[in-house]
Amino acid sequence: MKLEHIGIAVADVETTRNLFQLVFGAVPYKTEEVLSEGVRTHFYDAGGVKLELLESILPDSAVDRFIKKNGQGLHHLAFSVDDAARDFDRLKELGLRVLGEAPSSGADDKVIFFVHPKDTSGVLMEFCSPKKP
Ligand code: CMX
């Protein structure tokens, strides 16, 4: 099991970026939009694991719905796997509700998929593997 990043849904990304800069002197090493997920992502290196700030850029994106329902906060844990496509099929065969028809292209050069939080102890889990060259 390898934790790759922690996703945090933020309502006002500038406030959180300023906080991280003030508290840790940290700035994102990458900012990237993932239009298929309706988000802009801001990645921090937190020493062996990454933090991903998630800013909704489309109305009714998963993050927009999450913030409207819960407010900003911890959104998901992402685990690194060798081959997201293989694990997508494997977890589906185990009876878990994998979300979407297939893994998709995510931020930070990853192929990603999610499992419904109701099947994973209430924590939304992402599985990601490096994009093949
Ligand atoms: N963590 C824990 N529970 C969550 C959750 C989250 N992030 N998001 C939703 N839930 C819970 C809801 O509270 C709800 O529980 P109750 O039925 O007890 O109220 C249940 O899951 C269903 O949620 P919903 O609000 O009714 O439904 P949504 O339409 O928002 O769908 C989900 C939820 C997980 C299927 C959807 O958010 C999804 O497909 N997520 C995967 C994609 C994603 O999250 N993308 C954003 C990140 C992109 C990135 O990192 O690049």
Question: How would you concisely characterize the structure shown here?
Answer:
This protein is 23% helix and 41% strand. With 133 residues, the chain is α+β, with helices and mostly antiparallel strands.
Please describe what this structure looks like.
The chain is α+β, with helices and mostly antiparallel strands and 133 residues long. The chain contains three helices and eight strands. It has one domain (2-130): 2,3-Dihydroxybiphenyl 1,2-Dioxygenase, domain 1, CATH 3.10.180. The chain has an eight-stranded mixed beta sheet with strand order 2-3-4-1-5-8-7-6. The longest helix is centred in the N-terminal third of the chain and has 12 residues, at 13-24. The chain is globular. Bound molecules: carboxymethyldethia coenzyme *A. The site of carboxymethyldethia coenzyme *A (CMX) has 22 residues, from β3, α2, β5 and β6. Carboxymethyldethia coenzyme *A binds at residues 7, 34, 37, 39, 41, 54, 62-63, 65-66, 69, 75-76, 99, 106-107, 114, 116-118, 122, 124.
Keyword list:
alpha+beta, 2,3-Dihydroxybiphenyl 1,2-Dioxygenase, domain 1, 133 residues, binds carboxymethyldethia coenzyme *A, 23% helix, 8-stranded mixed beta sheet
Please, how many domains? 1
Widest β-sheet, arrangement of strands: 2-3-4-1-5-8-7-6
Counting copies of identical and different chains, the oligomeric state is single chain
What is the fourth-level CATH superfamily?
A: 2,3-Dihydroxybiphenyl 1,2-Dioxygenase, domain 1
Approximate strand percentage = 35-45%
Low-confidence stretches: none
